[in-house]
């Protein structure tokens, strides 16, 4: 069976894009049979966009411009032979409806579906979510999780959301990680637990580089990028079908 070509949209920020490319290759190689002259690399095409321009539209809530800007990258991926789109950013999934409208036959491996699959295996139906302010404020991830029967909690205070966003934009996207920012993130994760969450999605692909399970040992964390990457690798290795993680209304088995 032909291995599908993965298209990775990155630059939002570049840090997660590096992790996606590196770890997908590592996971596929680790599970590939021996005997090759060189390591077997999966077919991947990548497009990197300008995070500054993207965040300008996003922060101004110019969502049509956000969609159009991200679509420019997706068009390049499709032209390069992308068969399964992987957006290396939780926030970047805001453009999924626009991508589906323009490319109705393009398969999209949605990060929320991958996280929902993990949650359902653990029989969790209530989850906390921290990420960029748009991810916490808007509904593009929360609504997708809801299709799987999962209720989502986010930090309630706008100031808290802004503080988390500031850490992401001014520190994590520059590959800067501090103990002070980690403590702030852990505090907010614990607040979501107190609200009734059974686990917490680290819903920005850079947050999981700052906070790991060892920092919150008694409360399950879902590193969204790591879960997304693992799912991509399993699809490439043909251990998993794309429809296996889709919510039922979208699944071919419905």
Count of discrete domains: 2
**Main sheet properties:** 4 strands, parallel
Q: What is the percentage of strand-forming residues?
A: 5-15%
How far apart are the termini?
Answer: 24 Å
The outline comes out as: globular
Number of helices: 11
Low-confidence stretches: none
* Strand element count: 8
SS-derived structural category: alpha/beta
CATH topology description of the largest domain = Rossmann fold
**Major sheet strand order:** 2-1-3-4
- Helix percent reads 40-55%
The appropriate CATH architecture of the largest domain is 3-Layer(aba) Sandwich
How confident overall, as mean pLDDT?
Answer: 91
Radius of gyration: 18 Å
CATH class of the largest domain: Alpha Beta
Order of helices and strands: EHEHHEHEHEHHEHHEHEH
Task: Describe this protein's structure.
The chain has 254 residues and is an alpha/beta fold. It has two domains: 6-110 and 226-250, Rossmann fold; 112-223, Rossmann fold, CATH 3.40.50. The protein is built from eleven helices and eight strands. The strands form two sheets. The chain has a four-stranded parallel beta sheet, sandwiched between helices. Strands 6-5-7-8 form a four-stranded parallel beta sheet, with helices on both faces. Helix 1 crosses helix 11, helix 5 (111-121) crosses helix 7 (140-146) and helix 5 (111-121) packs across helix 11 (224-236).
């Amino acid at each position: 069976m032909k291995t599908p070509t993965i298209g990775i949209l990155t630059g939002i920020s570049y840090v997660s894009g590096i992790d996606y490319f590196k770890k997908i290759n590592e996971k596929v190689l680790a599970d590939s049979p021996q005997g090759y002259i060189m390591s077997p690399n999966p077919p991947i095409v990548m497009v990197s966009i300008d995070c500054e321009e993207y965040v300008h539209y996003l922060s101004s809530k110019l969502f049509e411009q956000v969609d159009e800007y991200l679509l420019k990258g997706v068009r390049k991926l499709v032209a390069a032979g992308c068969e399964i789109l992987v957006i290396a950013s939780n926030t970047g999934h805001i453009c999924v409806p626009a991508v589906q409208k323009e490319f109705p036959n393009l398969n999209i491996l949605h990060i929320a579906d991958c996280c929902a699959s993990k949650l359902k295996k653990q029989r969790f139906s209530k989850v906390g979510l921290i990420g960029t302010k748009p991810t916490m404020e808007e509904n593009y991830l929360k609504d997708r999780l809801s299709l799987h029967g999962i209720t989502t909690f986010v930090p309630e205070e706008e100031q808290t959301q802004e503080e988390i966003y500031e850490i992401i934009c001014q520190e994590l996207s520059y590959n800067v990680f501090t103990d002070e920012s980690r403590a702030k993130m852990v505090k907010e994760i614990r607040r979501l637990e107190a609200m009734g969450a059974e686990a917490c999605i680290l819903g920005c692909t850079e947050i999981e580089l700052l906070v790991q399970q060892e920092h919150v040992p008694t409360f399950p964390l879902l590193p969204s990028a790591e879960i997304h990457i693992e799912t991509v690798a399993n699809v490439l290795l043909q251990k998993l079908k794309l429809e296996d993680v889709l919510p039922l209304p979208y699944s071919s088995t419905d």
